[in-house]
Amino acid sequence: MGSEGEIEKKPRFLCLHGFRTSGEILQKQVGKWPESVLGKIDLVFLNGPFPSQEYTNFDECLAYIENYMIKHGPFDGLLGFSQGAILSAALPGLQAKGMALTKVPKIKFLIIIGGAKLMSQSWAEKAYSSPIQCPSVHFLGEMDFLKQYGIELLDSFVDPFVIHHPKGHTVPRLDEKGLQIMLSFLERTQKMLCMKEEEEICLE
Fold first, then answer.
1. Alpha helices, DSSP H only, in the chain?
2. Which of these is catalytic: 138, 144, 156, 165?
3. Residue 27 Rama label (left phi>0; alpha psi -120 to 50; beta)
4. Element (H, E) at 7
5. Which of 14, 106, 151, 193 is the most buried (most CB within 10 A)?
6. Minimal CA–CA distance to 76: which of 36, 27, 111, 125?
7. 172 or 7, which is more confident?
8. Contact in structure between 101 and 133 (CB atoms under 8 Å)
9. Structural contact between residues 163 and 182, judged by C-beta atoms closer than 8 angstroms
């Protein structure tokens, strides 16, 4: 708990797991990050009924996430691993086009772990047609079979933070360098939230 005089608002992230894992597994993996990171963010882990086939019921998948965000939100950002990362990275662009998450506040921040672009050409054209402006941090694993696709995804983002790690397709622990990059990303999210709060106070 922060002191009463503390006005720091923690960014709230909805966490999306990969198709063959669960919210609980992702929570355990992310839970290995140091308190200096975890203490600065509020994480909510969704157990998604994601299909094991990537684009079957894609609309239902988006609707499920949106309904969860309406009930349990508001959320400031998304954290995604594997297919959850592919989805998270695509959502701000689809949201901006009015094709997803139309009933919830704009996604402001992204944490992408083992991500890639959507494979479906029709969805991809809409998701990445404009540069994605929201602050993002991307984890690229040296041994990850998606690494090349994760690098290609970076092209769609403006000023992304990038954390390289030696592991494969997994949620890695943060080494000293990775920790510094993560903290810089969180500093940027914090500044944006503070600016937004100041704007709201001015408008009142």
1. 23-30, 35-38, 58-72, 83-96, 121-127, 147-154, 176-203
2. 144
3. alpha
4. none
5. 14
6. 111
7. 172
8. no
9. yes
- DSSP per-residue letters across 83-141: HHHHHHHHHHHHHHTTSS-TTSPPP-EEEEES----S-HHHHHHHSSS-B-S-EEEEEE
Q: CA 169 from chain center: how many Å?
A: 16
Cα–Cα distance measured from residue 101 to residue 198, given in angstroms and rounded to the nearest whole number: 25
β-pair type (12-16, 77-81)? parallel
Percent of the chain residues past pLDDT 70, beyond the cut:
88
Residue tagged active-site, from 17, 76, 82, 156: 82
Taking alpha carbons only, the member of 28, 2, 203, 15 closest to residue 109 is: 15
pLDDT at 54: 62
Cβ of 136: how many Cβ atoms within 10 Å?
Answer: 27
What are 139-154's pLDDT values in tens digits?
Answer: 999 999 999 999 999 9
Closest CA to 23 of 171, 179, 181, 183: 171
